[in-house]
């Protein structure tokens, strides 16, 4: 179904949009502009919404706010917000009464006129998605970047053409109910995550795997051959298969091997035409082995779409994505990094492994119900001072103190980031690194990891 046809099909129906946040607001405004009867539902009260409530009502939107915002939904079509389970009792009851449950992303897949490349995984998906999008742009493609990366695309579909490319980051929550898959599906890696929302790890894996389960023989799946879970996907693909690996040569895809110069390693690509050297690791500006893995995934995905010369030029200049080991400033010889995206132990481990020197680490946030046991030994090996705040401060401290390599690392608990940054400033000397890498979600104190990172940067940039 085309975009305009879908919008026309809603004219005679009532629509409920759950969540008046960043991902759904463009959808609400689009539907209102086309004369659709929209009810916007949110657990926030009117005071919390502020001027937005009056603005939406002025455009003809009906609001259902407060703790009963999901009660007795009767609209013909219900758009759930990302992160909301589709099997909530209120949603299940609405479906039983005849409502159609969908999401902004599900509809986008149904109406998008151009090829879709999508990335999911536990770690690295945002950087990998960004690299893919920027490489395609550099090669002359018109690219629409969105999904879980923070930019909803459905409202922009009318301006897309068949020659464009949509590049998406997809979360497990977005994928849970998908009945379509992208033309190129990339899975970076999988490890326990979001177990505070998913019933168990198996459900989380199944949701992530949904990115390729609806592909056709003409489509391509790209899997991490080094990860136990993603490598188990090999053989389940419905179309072409590409893999990537830091540890071994692959038949089709991207891998590491000695550089032809004899100095270090390079990314090589293998396909039906043979094997070729694409990118020396020495030319990658982004630090860390995890970013090498992100390049492997991206290069495997764009093979045949982006010339090798463009890949090398891009890698030399690309400094990374905001909130991902982002250098905020250097003050008196001390470098301050914002790694607010690190909402799991694995992400913080990858961040710590990116530095040769021991760092001052600021960590802690909301608990996602996952184990922190793997984090303790890495902190003991890579951190000279650990500053903790937030709900997970206790479990992070425990993981450090109970690790076999614990040697009395100094751990200090503080109330907030301002105290954390001021303490780090007072203890850091020339040549030191201070990094915010929470290993936890932001929801104990912030709306999202972007807000958390911005607050941290404001405090750091205010230091004198």
Helix count, DSSP H or I runs of 4 or more residues: 17
Structural class: alpha/beta
Task: State the major sheet.
Answer: 9 strands, mixed
Q: Beta-strand level of the residues, as a percent range?
A: 15-25%
For the termini, the CA-CA separation is: 57 Å
- Label the overall shape: globular
Overall number of strands:
20
Report mean pLDDT, rounded to a whole number.
93
The low-confidence runs, each spanning 5 or more residues with pLDDT under 50, are none
Strand order of the largest sheet: 7-8-6-9-10-11-12-13-14
Gyration radius, rounded: 23 Å
Which percent range fits the helix content?
A: 25-40%
Provide an overview of this structure:
By secondary structure, the protein is an alpha/beta fold. The chain contains 17 helices and 20 strands. It has helices spanning 3-9, 25-33, 46-49, 51-58, 89-96, 104-111, 125-138, 172-175, 201-209, 228-232, 289-302, 308-317, 345-352, 375-382, 393-401, 417-427, 449-461; strands at 14-18, 37-42, 62-65, 77-80, 100-103, 116-120, 143-147, 165-169, 184-187, 220-224, 240-245, 253-258, 265-271, 274-280, 326-331, 334-338, 359-363, 383-388, 411-413, 433-436. Strands 7-8-6-9-10-11-12-13-14 form a nine-stranded mixed beta sheet, with helices on one face. Strands 15-16-20-17-18-19 form a six-stranded mixed beta sheet, sandwiched between helices. α14 (375-382) links the parallel β17 and β18. The longest helix is centred in the N-terminal third of the chain and has 14 residues, at 125-138. The protein is globular. 47% of the residues are buried.
